[in-house]
Predict the 3D structure of the following.
Amino acid sequence: MVDGTIVQEGQTKLLVPKDHSVGGPGKIGHSVFFNEQMAFSRDVSVMFLRTLSRGVNVADTMAATGSRAVRIANEIPEMDVVANDVSPYAMPYIEENVKINGLCNCTLSNKNMHSLLAEDIFDYVDVDPFGSPVPFLHSAIQGCKRYGYIAITATDTATLAGAQKLKCKRRYQVEPLGGPMCHEIGIRILLGTMAREMAKFNKGLKPILSFSADHYFRIYVQSLDGATYADKSLDSFVYLSYNPKTLERSFSRESDKNYKYGPFWGGGLFDRECISKMSSDNMSTWRRCDKMLEIWRDEIDEVPFLYEISEISSYLKLSTPPLGKFIEKMNTYGRTTKTHISPTAFKTVLSLKEIIDIYKECAEGC
């Protein structure tokens, strides 16, 4: 028996190290890595994979304790799962978790993920590294079947959200942006990077679900074979102009002295049909899942016009009206939605002038 503690997550029992992380990005120590806070991320994986046809083969390329792989195998028994990790110390945990849950559809693999994905291809490839996923994208793309799915996690959020601009330029070849839109831009930088890498293999991508949560960004994309799809994906790139003094923001397909932020993904973030099929039944964080599913199903996801209500309040030097009532009022003039990115932000198709006029009206008694 491997030394550790048993936790219940969803319908699955998991043996994890006693000294595991319970919040934030965690730290890589001598023990096999496990983070309780990532239960929501694993819930989303299960919810998504339950929407796919049966007989899907899954590669969890950086399985650690096997928490994600074992949950998928246990909670979607029709799927065949490979739980892979390069660390030999991970194998006893994965083996024990397979045994605890009585699984016969979860295979252990102790390989470098590049080797695994060079030797076999999968319907679904999951890459969940500590830090940036950039070094692993080529292998993930090559190891994914035609029209298969790739899920990518990035925990280098400070880089993607504009706090480390030089690192973002080196790593992602993008001029990032801090401020109110930083997390949406971070998602779009990650999607754009994936689109560029896939285009090298004459592949395009279709975003299924792209989100920011806790300390990480997470994207699910479908791989589309063919130069036409690759070109269409690259045509989705945009550059941003943003003036924090006036709050003006706009987008262009071309870069110039005004449109200097980017390039990043300017297309959609979600596949509504897929999200409509996702269900929080038996999920570990079902309340959070329900809340996020409700927002994702409605959220404006085209080129981002995200505003924090506090930035408008500060700009106008007016008290902040209730966000719900403000959005309700905005919707009488043009589509406006909440966003999963922040509980105090919104997205809208309305112009800044229209937003300000409505805000003033609401601040006086919306």
Notes: The chain has 14 helices and 15 strands. The chain has a mean pLDDT of 94.
